[in-house]
Amino acid sequence: MDKFIIKGNTPLRGTVSINGAKNAAVAILPATALIKGKCRIDNIPNISDIKRCCEILELLGAKVNFITPNEVEIDSTNVEEKEIPLDLTKKFRASYYFIGALLSRFGKASVGFPGGCNFGSRPIDQHIKGFETLGATVNCEGGMIYATSENGLEGNSVYLDVVSVGATINIMLSAVLVPGVTTIENAAKEPHIVDLANFLNTMGANIKGAGTDIIKITGVEELRGNASYSIVPDQIEAGTFMIAAAASRGDVTITNCITKHLDPISAKLVEMGVNIEESEDGDEIRVWSDERTTKGNIKTLPYPGFPTDMQPQVAVLLSVSQGTSYLTEGVFDSRFQYTEELKKMGAKIRIEGKTACIEGVETLNGCQVTATDLRAGAALIIAGICADGETELYGIEHVERGYEKIAERFNSLGAKIERVSE
Hints:
The protein is an alpha+beta fold. It contains 14 helices and 23 strands.
């Protein structure tokens, strides 16, 4: 068992470069199964979720060659439709994107139920609705999802009952090679959806409207590959460093980012008294704070709202801000398990339904805590950096699902984080 030992009360100062977006990469890698040929992807984060995606691709018959830790060449010429077992899919949520990709290319898919972070109900009913609207039959039994199309798939109009990033991506993947036009209405607009559409179009797909609430996919006969693509910078990773800079009363410049994607986060930080300066090119942002931030009122929403994946991190900032703040979760049913760990450190948090009432304290105190999920782990690292004393963080495997070399990169900014094996 590995843990982080974090020595606190260390303001962060310096420059950090942002890696490729985890949420884009875990959608683009399954999409390579659609290509009858090779493609090269760079700016890919070197994290465990990526390695698991590549394991599944190799199971299906793809040749995966990492040129560098952040650049991979994938040859999917000989990919076959095979059952993807539960022991591979249960380790991460994005495994369900292989359903859409295999259904589009082969007309059938057998994929184990997805796993990933546990923060309440995360149904896939909208995914299934999309597959069935295109003509598939979907059955869920024995921990597996079986999708088949005996009479072939055909483009159709799909209206999502709720805005769902996963369903939007999966329907896009399932429609790429399907005859006719598929329209997704009430589609999600997140940057990684746009990135997936750009990748597929680079490989020969015909997708229009990504980034709006109506996406149109005109099916093509095949994706040609033989092209290179660079993953978009990670909005959530950049936001995590922004929050860490503000909470530690530091001064951090974040490079290789898209500042436009950070607007929902920047706006709330400015409201709380944090200083923010963006470069003219929109690829660099400086975040600094010399004093305690003021209270905030934040609700997570689908993009372009405040990201749900930034909710635990901003809770740490609110915990050390002046006054009483309110943090409402507007995407998932339950994402406040981590608050019990923050309360061990002295945070004053009361949960009322989907809202956390947070009374700011002068400082947190280091102690032994455990990460309950990916973003909660990042939040507890920030808490440990800000706290007095020493924090022992367990469950760091959750953090490493989504952040590459997280301890080393925080240490480059002045944090004191040591990885210890027990």
